[in-house]
Amino acid sequence: MKKTFNRSRRQTLAMAAAFAACALTGAQAQGPWPGTQPVKLVVPFTAGSGTDIVARLVAEKLGPALGTSVIVDNKPGAGGTLGAAIVAKAPADGYTLLVHSAGHLVNPWIYKGLSYDTIKDFTGITPMASLPNVLVTAPSHFSDVKDLVAKAKAKPGGLNYGSAGNGSATHMNAEVFRLAAGVDAQHVPFRGTPEAMTEVMAGRVDWFFAPMVSALPLIQTGRLQALAVGTGKRSSALPNAPTTVEAGVPGSEYLFWVGLFAPAKTPQPVVDRLQAEVAKIMASPELKERLEKLGAEPFTMPSAQFNKFIVDETAKAQQVVKAASIKVD
């Protein structure tokens, strides 16, 4: 019996050693992250949206910093939940990441039966930029914010406003403004920012809180009229445009940000490397200048701080959703 036991034990140890050797060989073959394998940034909105523009600015610099290619993959639909679901289910290996906006924290409160948990299934790497939304209309549609509010109050439910989808940051900004102004209007959600701006320019949608990075070229060419910015301070890109608070609607400011996320359980060294590289990119004079021309500003923080920020902002989002009775149409 003793010989049999020893033989069995030796066989078990030999098998364990073989498995360990195979695992080591596989790890060595793959090499350290990221190696030469491309990193994919999933953007859950259409090309040309504010989130997409920031993602592409970062991808352009992040690839060389990591020594590999960084690809932007647009997966729009359902207020950003389709793209988020793809990343939530992706391997936590640092090769599939999510670039989402503040609207990411709204979706748990308006979409029933999501296939992922916004907090538990993602690791926040860092916010990347804050982007003021700008309240835009067709040229001469309204003279100013007070005119818009007056006409909306004179005809409750008669005007409409667009968004890049239910629960998107553009929708949330519009709801914060609408509640603060005390007006009733019809919400018209679109698949993304470009579609919403097209309808505003055509006069079929009365107003839209567009990301500055997307709307600025159309404002500069006179195809859109900027009435105000939705943030708490004026934008250097449109210094003559007041904030909605300055325009007479107190309590209407809203912070629209774009951030980088990874699937939960992504190795901490990978998260730390990504956070450090993105922070360097956003702090570079070139990126600051390019963002400033778009009306955006660098906005970064350590991963641990960002994850706490996510929890706090998710709670705030719930309050707005409840107050505005936001639902999926």
SSE layout:
Blueprint: H1 2-30, E1 39-43, H2 50-66, E2 70-74, H3 81-88, E3 96-101, H4 107-110, E4 122-130, E5 133-137, H5 145-154, E6 160-163, H6 169-181, E7 186-189, H7 193-201, E8 207-211, H8 212-220, E9 225-229, E10 257-263, H9 268-283, H10 285-293, E11 297-298, H11 303-324
Helix pairs in contact: 2-9, 6-11
Comma- or semicolon-separated keywords:
single chain, 329 residues, alpha/beta, D-Maltodextrin-Binding Protein, domain 2, 6-stranded mixed beta sheet, 5-stranded mixed beta sheet
Order of helices and strands: HEHEHEHEEHEHEHEHEEHHEH
How many individual β-strands?
A: 11
Strand-pairing-aware structural class: alpha/beta
The largest sheet has its strands arranged as: 2-1-3-10-4-11
Q: How many domain regions?
A: 2
Please name the fourth-level CATH homologous superfamily of the largest domain. Bordetella uptake gene, domain 1
Q: Helical region count?
A: 11
User: What is the alpha-carbon Rg in Å?
Assistant: 23 Å
Q: What share of residues is helical? A: 40-55%
> Cα distance, first to last residue?
72 Å
